[in-house]
Amino acid sequence: MAGVKQPSDKSHFLLPDLGEGLVEAELISWKVKAGDTVKESQTLAEMQTDKALVEVPSPWAGTVTEITGKPGDIIKVGAVLVRYGAAKAAPAPAPVAAAAASSNGNACMSSQIASGAPAAEGDQGTVVGTMSGTLTVSDRFARRAPEAAVAVRDGKAMATPAVRGLAKKFGVDIQKVPGSGRGGRVTASDVASFAEGGVATMVEPSAAGVAGFAPRAATIAPGSVYIDQNDVAQRVPFRGVRRKIAEALSRSVQTAVHFTVVDEADVTALEAKRREYSKVVGEKLSMLPFIMTAICRGLKKHPSLNAVVDDAKGEIILKSAVNLGCAVDTDAGLMVPVIRNAGALAPVQMSQSVKTLAAKCKDRTIAREDSLGGTFTISNVGSYGGMFATPVINYPEVAILAAGRAKERVCVKDGKFYAGLVLPLSLSCDHRVVDGAEGARFLNTVVKLLEDPDALLS
C-alpha cells in the first residue's frame, strides 16, 4: 500500500476502504473494460470483503484506459484499481488566455496535465473532470499531502484493532493520522496515505513490541507436498467466500486450542410449546430461535464464554452484550451474520432477525458490518440431517454451539417409558480461555433451559 508511485499524466481511482479496518479485497469480476466510457456511480467491479460482496462504483464519469488485476487477485486498499483517460485536449489557448489560466490553481493543474508536465510535489489527489473544464480533486478519494496530516488529537484516535496494528506495522503514530471514516474514525487507507507521505518508515512486527501469542501459519512451498496430477476432474481455485472461509478456519485452528463437549436435551415439552407459539404468531417457528434464547440465558450465567481474544495484545475481552452469530449455508459458502444484543430479543423476534439476515446472505446483499462483532456463534447442523459435530470456533470468539437434528427416541423418566424428542448438542471452546468443566457447566445450563420451557420463556 505504501509507496505507490503514480504517473502524473493519468487520473487514478485507488481502491478505497470498503469497510472499517479493511486492508485488502479480492477482485471477483470486472463490470467494465479498457476503452469503456463510464458514468458517475456506475459499477466498475465486484469485490469480496471478508464475507460480503461489494460493488465498487466509479467516483466520476470518464473513459477507462486501464483496469488493474484479474478475477481472483487480492487488491490492497490504496492501490490503483482503474486508470482514466481524458478526451483529446482542446487547442492550446492564446498566450493571454494561458497567462490568465496560470493565475488560477485549478486551471494551472489542467495546463500541466494537458502538456504532460509533472504535477507538483505532494499533489497526490485524484483528478476529476474534463480537459476543457475546471479540474477538481475528489474529496472522497483524495490522497492527503503529508503536511496536512500532522495535527495531534486531544483524545484517543478512533480505529479498529486491525487499523491500529497496521499503523504499528508502518511505524505511524495513529494519533497524528486524520480520520476520514464515520465520526472521524481512522481507516486503513488513512494510515496508508499517511505512511506514503514519508512521515514514517516500515518496521518489523517484532520491533514494534507486539504482545501477542498467536502462532504464525506455516507456509507450504510449491512441490513440498506430493499431489497426484492424474484423473483430475476439475480444479477449483480458492476464491470469493470460499477463500475467506479457508482463511478464517485456518486462523482459528492454528490459534484457538479446541475442545468439544457433547450432550443431549429432551425437548419434548419445548416442541409442544414451539407448536403453540407457531399457531399464535401465524407462522411456523423452528427450534432454532428457542435454542438461541437458551444460549443467551446461559451466557449470562457463564460470561467467560461470551468473550473474544485479542491475541495481538494478549487479552481476553469479556462482553456485556450477546452478539450472536448464526451460521448460514449459501450457494457461495458459509456466512455468519450477527444478531446484535440477542439477549434482549424474544424467540419470535429472534426468528425474524435470522430470516432477514439469512435472506441477505443468500442474495449477497449482507453488509460487512453485519458479519462483524460476534461474541458467540451457533451452527444449526441439524437442518441438514447431522447429529453431533465438532464445530470450529469462529475466531476471535471463544465458543461455538452446534445443534443437531432432534429425533424421536424412547426415553425414561421416573421409571416410566415414553416417546420423547431428543436434541443433540455439541459445544466447542477455546481451551486457552474456557476450562473443560466450565464448558460442560454452560452446556448443562442450556440443556436444563431447553428441557424446561417455562423457565426458558419466563
Structure, explained:
The strands form 6 sheets. Strands 11, 14, 17, 18, 19, 20 and 21 form a 7-stranded mixed beta sheet that branches. The protein has a 4-stranded antiparallel beta sheet with strand order 1-8-6-3, with no helix packed on it. Helix 7 crosses helix 8 and helix 7 packs across helix 9. Helices cover 26% and strands 23% of the residues. The chain has 10 helices and 21 strands. The longest helix has 16 residues. A hairpin with a 7-residue loop joins strand 9 and strand 10.
Number of helices: 10
By DSSP, the count of extended strands is 21
Globally, the shape reads elongated
Oligomer: single chain
Question: What is the mean predicted local confidence, pLDDT?
Answer: 78
Unreliable stretches, pLDDT < 50, 5 or more residues?
1-10, 87-152, 198-215
Q: Could you give a short description of this structure?
A:
The chain contains 10 helices and 21 strands.
Write the layout of secondary structure elements.
Layout: E1 11-14, E2 24-30, E3 37-38, E4 43-49, E5 52-57, E6 62-67, E7 74-76, E8 80-85, H1 95-102, H2 105-115, E9 127-128, E10 136-137, H3 161-169, H4 188-199, H5 240-255, E11 258-266, H6 268-281, H7 288-301, E12 307-310, E13 315-318, E14 324-326, E15 328-330, E16 333-335, E17 338-339, H8 347-362, E18 376-379, E19 399-403, E20 407-413, E21 416-430, H9 436-451, H10 453-456
Parallel strand pairs: 14-18, 18-19
Antiparallel strand pairs: 1-8, 2-4, 2-7, 3-6, 4-5, 6-8, 9-10, 11-21, 12-13, 14-17, 15-16, 19-21, 20-21
Helix pairs in contact: 3-4, 7-8, 7-9
